[in-house]
Amino acid sequence: MGIELLSPAQMAEADRLAITRGPFDGPALMQNAGSAVAREILSRYPQAQTVHVLAGPGNNGGDGFVAARLLAEAGVDVRVHCEGHPRPGSDAEGALAEMRLPLLGFDAFAPQASDVIVDALFGAGLVREIGAPHAPVIERANASGAPIVAVDLPSGLSGETGLVLGIAIRADLTVTFFRLKPGHLLYPGRDLCGETILVDIGIPADVLADIGSRTFRSVPELWRTHIPWPDSGSHKYARGHVGVFSGGPSATGAARLAAISAARAGAGAVTVLSPRQAVQVNAMHLTSVMLKRTDTPEEAVMFAADRKMTSALIGPGFGVGERCTEFVLALARLAAGRPFGLVLDADAITSFENAPHRLFEALAAIGSETGRGCAVLTPHEGEFRRLFPDLADAAGLSKLERARRAAERSHAVVVLKGPDTVIAAADGRAAINTNATPFLATAGSGDVLAGIVAGLLAQGMPAFEAAAAGVWLHAEAGARFGPGLIAEDLPGLLPAVLAGLRDSQGSSS
Ligand SMILES: NC(=O)C1=CN([C@@H]2O[C@H](COP(=O)(O)OP(=O)(O)OC[C@H]3O[C@@H](n4cnc5c(N)ncnc54)[C@H](OP(=O)(O)O)[C@@H]3O)[C@@H](O)[C@H]2O)[C@@H](O)CC1
Ligand SMILES: Nc1ncnc2c1ncn2[C@@H]1O[C@H](COP(=O)(O)OP(=O)(O)O)[C@@H](O)[C@H]1O
Ligand SMILES: [K+]
């Protein structure tokens, strides 16, 4: 299954290019799409009394007409509900002409819980809020208790944003074509789709080169070749040295959690840089992770240079304020002159709430050329709002687009966390992560993620790939553990997840 995600506009372009190049013309693609829907219904719901097909005015409705015809030919009792006529000359009009079933109005739509509903009202062509006569039909479908199979997208769901335009179908199964759309993966869309299956309807993959999608599902295929594995020539500093900044004596746990996570992600050496007052408490809890007293940004920079530090993480438990901003700015200057990965999380983000431009200017100076450093920001929604209030409040802007614009503005890779974490780079690439479990919503879980990313960056992994891989590894570890997960469990789960990745090297998942 391809990892590119296409916006509805890009999908329309894929359809157009496919029709121009062949081997399938528009009606044939529609035949393939509708027959995939019919096939799924016949295999999943063999006992259904009646299948109600809700058909809209565009080609999504056309897929519905094809499915209706094939189901009727298979002996199913099919009722097609439609208002208005497809556009003259459209593929949908052709599919309607071939169907030869009576057209019922929406008023006659009265499904029983033992029936099946096919939602072919709107797909990629949804452009505005749903109103009458479609909204009441969607409401009735959702309330019926009958399983709903959505064609391409649940009607009312924006394939571009994952947001609902007024009201949307809540599907049990969504059958979509060629490539997933962001709306299948971003919430609330992901919930509305139910199970999503992707069907090959004969669109040749080479149309992707013309479309140039820069949005991906974050699966190992996207970043696996960049995962750093040690070889016989490796020594500990060749595997990177991570510095993790600790907070004061009552806020040291976050840094240690991140530090051990960086080590588990493969960094050869990890040091906790601690203020004087917290050195003793840190020393009591560290074994393989080293400890260095560090009270000023100058000391931090000197240590980083002396000890060949290749990445740093600051923010978790560090404390919000001017002291934090000074450390961040000093580290950003360091990263501007050498290959050095800087991860900013939690307090390092919040500390710039009143002057985000100071941070963005410092990160811009890092640049993204080979041999220079890079920065990764890992905000949850609340932290994101502090740095990018206008993007957070922009109505109708998808999580994908918010992260992408934030990356462009901040000159950093932005990891916008949540159940559908988005990873975006300043160059326009973006990925949506899909393997998270809600059990990850536990204190300290974000510190582990930031540590993993710092650990991968320290080993020279490029920032976008390191961030995407870090999010996936973190989520996979959480998903494998399940109920009862606490953040302390996560680092110890990484070896098995990494081993699985290494063993599956070369296969795609
Ligand atoms: N040959 C092909 O190209 C293939 C296409 N395929 C299928 O086609 C689907 C895309 O088809 P599509 O582009 O016709 O869009 P579709 O989702 O049917 O809706 C457009 C219609 O809805 C209307 N409309 C929009 N919003 C509305 C609202 N809120 N409330 C009311 N009306 C609204 C809009 O009206 P208008 O804006 O023009 O006034 C227009 O009439 C795609 O999802 C896939 O299923 C596959 O078969 C593969 C081959
Ligand atoms: N409902 C959820 N489903 C899946 N993952 C989640 C959910 N809520 C949070 N997460 C993940 O858990 C982590 C929490 O990080 P964060 O909010 O920084 O917490 P903390 O500061 O307590 O460590 C992030 O990686 C986030 O993506
Ligand atoms: K639909």
Automatic annotation (TrEMBL):
InterPro entries, A to Z: Carbohydrate_kinase_pred_CS, CARKD, Nnr, Ribokinase-like, YjeF_N_dom, YjeF_N_dom_sf
Membrane-crossing segments per the record: none
Keywords in alphabetical order: ATP-binding, Isomerase, Lyase, Metal-binding, Multifunctional enzyme, NAD, NADP, Nucleotide-binding, Potassium
CDD domains: YXKO-related
YjeF N-terminal domain location: 11-209
One Pfam match: Carb_kinase
EC number: 4.2.1.136, 5.1.99.6
Family: In the C-terminal section; belongs to the NnrD/CARKD family.
Protein name: Bifunctional NAD(P)H-hydrate repair enzyme
